[in-house]
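quick one before i forget lol
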Amino acid sequence: MTTVFLNSVKTLSLAFIMLLSLNAIAQDIILKQDGSEIKAKVLEITDQQIKYKDFDFQSGPTRNINIPDVFMITYENGQKEVFNKKTSTSITPPKEVFSEQTPTPTVPEKTHNASSSDLKREFDRIGTNDIAMLNFFMQNNFFEYYDRFGSACHQRAAGRVLLSSGIACMASGAVWMILAQTLYGNPGPFDYDAGDRYRSYMITGGIFMSAGEILTIVSIPVSASAGAKKKAIKNDFAREYFGVEGYTYQPKLNFGATSNGIGLTLNF
């Protein structure tokens, strides 16, 4: 009976951790034209609408969003589907233009939605808001920077998944150790198997704790590398379009809702 209970708890613990990891990864992201995101499970795409379920409430109602309101869908396998590239912001591929006076070809310059000064003000205002930065690159035709910055954001999300999984593993390990101490830490005189069960629970808890520590440690360089890439991309953009060597902005201390509740966050 004890063995069955032990195996059941192990199975439930593993299932919980796998579910947590899948919940963080296996989702479709609908990026709207205003830069906001919807975590969803896309069901159907018609000529006019996208039908989807809220990812965190897939047993709920089917929702619809009009195609003109959507810029792109990033599917759970990483593939992207772009729906609306605004004609007013599209870039015409460079073509050779010949003048009657000279045979030397000229190439038209890239055109964007705003002047350089307006772009710089908007760029400086965005700061650490990743969604707003992606929207800035997309709406102003900086598609190369959009792809690079989006890749760095996905890496940062992977780091958060590793961290969440590591915390979940360590929490499971702590539960196993508490159960070991509570159930078998002080065995009775005739409980001959208590010592074996105690060791089994402690070993299981130690495995989960070790796995959690490894995942947590790995998440640190993954997230740090993603942050460095995002900063480098901003520096490259500022250098290319504004002539600024090394883009910097002041850290911001914000109070409000976070993924862990309500508190202070320092963006830098």
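fyi The CA atoms of residues 185 and 198 lie 7 Å apart.
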